């Protein structure tokens, strides 16, 4: 991103992972290629027609789509990572399959899709739905982890609010690069956190709790990277530093302290592991634990 605004749009619109697609009308190979760019394979049951509106902001995706009968699915390739995903069926019935589990979703139905693993959507008739995706960790870890959670067709006020919110945004001219879009995205994510309770599979969590959980996962995973800072962590999670600190506050912690603690833990483990291995010196242990110098590691261990 550049600090210099362009005459037409805010600079944020130049991000490759931010886009708005509206009024898409695709057929056959073009429709299959578009689905492929989104990480889906597709097997049409005949001539394929697809109409869609879409907003994309990093891992956050809001989509309204209608297509003729087809079988399509997602197979994680390791690049896209895990997601919190939900489908709101609007028209037509589809069968969702993950592993040995199959569920039929009719108009009014809601489904939470597996955050890990593959799943397939099979529609014998033309169907329409709204899809919502965002970062992993929005729901408790035992919800829709490797299975599909569904709510049969029903007219709940909460579902109606979700549908109305999505349709309103997709029918407007809002773009992920616009000022205020981050707040809109966070509002949608806040609504999505209520879905497990709606489906009766878990109590609702808050966006801050989900953010805290995801941040801790990233810290544990990337503490050995010396470039991991509160700023880069916030950027990875698509939130501001202030928002990130707010998520940690109820736990009496800060993201910076957790990063320091994770690195110190790595260093202690490696020092114990290589205590009698002269082939691995303190400089190498410091490097593998996320410290740029042995002195920085020693000071962290002394103060920790």
UniProtKB/TrEMBL annotation:
<dbReference type="InterPro" id="IPR018060">
    <property type="entry name" value="HTH_AraC"/>
</dbReference>
<dbReference type="GO" id="GO:0043565">
    <property type="term" value="F:sequence-specific DNA binding"/>
</dbReference>
<protein>
    <recommendedName>
        <fullName>HTH araC/xylS-type domain-containing protein</fullName>
    </recommendedName>
</protein>
<feature type="domain" description="HTH araC/xylS-type">
    <location>
        <begin position="213"/>
        <end position="304"/>
    </location>
</feature>
<dbReference type="GO" id="GO:0003700">
    <property type="term" value="F:DNA-binding transcription factor activity"/>
</dbReference>
